[in-house]
Amino acid sequence: MTTKEDIERLIESCKIVKSGAVELSKGIEEFENSVNKQPMFVKPFVKRDFASNTGMTEEEWKRFAERLRIRFTSIEDDSRKVLETYEQQRSEGDTYAAMTELKGTAKPFIDSGDTAIKAIAGFATYLESVPKKIKMAPKQFFKEEEKKKLIEAIPENVEKVKGLANLLRTIKDQLVDITAS
Amino acid sequence: MTEHSSAASEILNNLQSIFKSIESFFSNVESVGKPIEIGNVVLIPISTAFFGAGGGGGESGREQTNNGFGFGLGASKSLIALVIVAKDKPGTEGVHIHEFKNGKTGVGEALVEVLPKMFETWQMRGESPLSNEEKEKLMNI
Q: Which of A111, A16, A30 shows the shortest CA–CA distance to A69?
């Protein structure tokens, strides 16, 4: 039986996923900008390295992040409708109808959530390997100052990306429980 | 011919002969450049050196005291190939030779031409972490 508290927790999780998706998109954009500043023969190397290790190009990652944001905006909206039926003590029929709508909206994420988690966790693993790659890059390709700046920014981003993958794991479980009841 | 002019002519002949020897020694000599390491790949540039020399002369007469002669030499290097060695592949399997079609002279130009080949080498090492089907799922999540 889904409780009001379950729905409230789900709404909070949706908010965090939405901001995580926006941050992911911004992070990819920053990465793109940083790559575009590199010498012309470095750009294809880094882009290819990124795509072959994360499974998607920067453009695809931005599209995926946007899809994630849109999906969780819809899940949040539908969860609020379910919550309203609890708060306003409406009939069970109303709650059931709102819940059915939420199930439909959540289904694409429930079906593809594991792939999303795998992709994001893989992205975090790639980020962890980046400092080593930057250190290995010939000095003609990256200035020492640039190398240092890039390496310093990575640990924080790794934690954020890992956090997003973990949150998606939690929210998928929440949605499976809610939609199964 | 004056004393001056015969001395100039002699020096010039000597220089030309010296240049000729150097030229034949250096022309088409292939040189191996310093290896460049990028991750697990080592690039070894192979260049050809061209050597050129020229001379000049002059003479003076009794009425004119100015005389002179000159000479010059020059050398240029042209990158003709890159040997690409993948460290993690044993034997000849990990060695590729990339030949430049038009005798590129700049390393930048050479890298632009050779990098796609290097990427192919890297990509061969592992499959993409996401299949097309999985990517499709993510685009429709």
A: A16
